[in-house]
Amino acid sequence: MHTMIRATPLALAALALMAAASAQAQAQQPAPVDEADVKALMAQLESLKANYAQEVRRLRELDMQVQAMQARLTGKTAPVASSAPPPQQALPAGTPAAPASADGYASSAAEAQQAKQESRRSVDDVKQQQAALFSRRFTIENSLSYARYDRKQLSLNGFLALDAIFLGNIAIENVESDTLTYNLAARWGISPRLTLNLDVPYLARKTVFQKGGAGGSAAAIAQEETTGNGIGDVGLSANYRLFAERGRLPETVLTVGATAPTGRAPYGLDWKVLERDDDDFIRFAVPEQQPTGNGVWQANVGLSAVKTADPAILFANIGYIHSFPRSFDDIDANPDTTNPGDVKLGGSYYFGAGVAFAFNERTSLSISFSDKLSARASTRYKNGQWLKVIGSDANAGTLNLGITYALNQKTTLVSLLGIGLTPDAPDFTLAFKVPYSL
Asked: Which portions of the chain have biased composition (kind: Low complexity) (predicted)?
């Protein structure tokens, strides 16, 4: 009995000590609810830090855009207050700072804008030549091009006897043509997606005609030179950007336009007769003046695409040119007769593709192939039927090499060399363009 009485106080004391230790341990460990609150607050803090850094970047970009627009309106460069970098706002501890140069940022907004423009200058110049550049408000382009065309053919007038001997006249015909074209173009950037273009060409042509067999002798060659100059066919077109360049998708531009027959038409020209045979048949005649236009209204539609893949720039285009019939007072090449009628040029499909390499912010080199397929033309005398003109179809393939160099912030020099790959294409063309952005 005494043993039971002594054990009870000891057990009670042990239980009290165990309860106290358990209470102390529970006091040291945080409640599960408090841990969840801390994690939520830390997540909110991290989110606010990231949003704050992003807003700082956006503020800098908006500041640069505002200064650039102000300088564009005043026509002056945005002033730089100091060459030292602007003071940065203090960010909370652990907040990632906005990168100063990852997006082309410089010590000031003006310098950053200029660096960004220079880094894309080569790309913009290539786009200006291949499709359209919608970021430029107004551009005046002066261009001068020279084309050389030389075609020889052998004509036989007779028959083959005994399968080996030719009886008749053998004549060699040669046509050498030189064309110098000055083109004045204006490009208006109506909106970030629409551009209007006006092209006014002026042509100076010289053509030398040579014909063998003059006077009935195969060794005799007659030669005559004719010239012509004047305004060419004026063109008006519009470029509409369907899709901007995003990821793997290229920038796609739709082009529609029309060409007016403002140049001298090749129909109804006065002809000069150089030689007739005994039966008064015209053997050799040439036009007194060279034409400077096609003589008919034309409409065109096309698509062009440009994709940047640093340091390369890929581009391609495809389109169709439709010619409308037109009546003329005389469509006969015989100077002794006058036959009014209608002329309808065949439709033309054109396509091309190439690549340009931007060596630096000023210089780029391009190489491309272009081809133009033209169907046969048709003529119809008054109250007659349409007849196809044999030999009027053409396939003009050209290999093009070009160098683009930025002279300054507003002016670019573009040089192009075209090498004819088919008989219907000019032997070579050489062109120089100087676009000037206002």
From this structure: 90-107
Helices (runs of H) and strands (runs of E) counted in the chain = 4, 19
The top-level CATH class assigned to 121-437 is mainly beta
Question: Does residue 269 contact residue 288 with C-beta atoms inside 8 Å?
Answer: yes
Question: What band does 287 get if pLDDT is binned at 50, 70 and 90?
Answer: confident
3-state secondary structure (DSSP) of residue 382? coil
383-392 long-range contacts, CB within 8 A, separation 24+: 384/341, 386/344, 392/346
Residue with tokens 């090499």: 401
- The percent helix, strand, coil of the chain (3-state, each to 5) is 20, 50, 30
Q: How far is CA 256 from CA 196, 277, 315, 324, 373, in A?
A: 10, 50, 18, 16, 19
Cα–Cα distances (Å) from 168 to 124, 156, 275, 370, in that order, read 61, 7, 18, 42
Q: Tell me the sheet residues that pair with 39.
A: none
Q: In terms of C-beta density within 10 A (0-12 exposed, 13-18 middle, 19 or more buried), how is residue 417 classed?
A: middle
In the predicted model, is pLDDT for residue 348 greater than 90? yes
* Nearby residues of 108 by Cβ (< 8 Å), 6 or more positions away: 80, 81, 82, 83, 85, 86
Place of tokens 């310098």: 111
DSSP 210-244: EEE-GGG-TT-EEEEEEEEEEE--EEEEEEEEEE-
With contact defined as beta carbons under 8 Å apart, do 140 and 436 qualify? yes
> Is 79 within 8 Å of 108 (Cβ atoms)?
no
Q: Helical H runs in 29-120?
A: 32-74, 109-119
Domain ranges of the chain: 36-73+109-119, 121-437
Lowest mean pLDDT across 269-278, 317-326, 380-389, 415-424: 269-278
Of 269, 283, 273, 130, which Cα lies nearest the Cα of 211? 283
pTM of the model: 0.67
Specify whether the CB–CB gap between 411 and 400 falls below 8 A.
Answer: no
Span 90-120, pLDDT tens digits: 444 444 444 444 444 444 455 445 544 544 6
CB 261 within 8 A of CB 322: no
- pLDDT tens for 253-283 read 999 999 999 999 888 888 887 777 666 667 7
Residues 47, 55 contacting (CB under 8 angstroms): no
Number of C-beta neighbours around residue 99 at 10 A? 10
Strand, helix or coil for residue 150: strand
In sequence order, the β-bridge partners of residue 252 are 243, 305
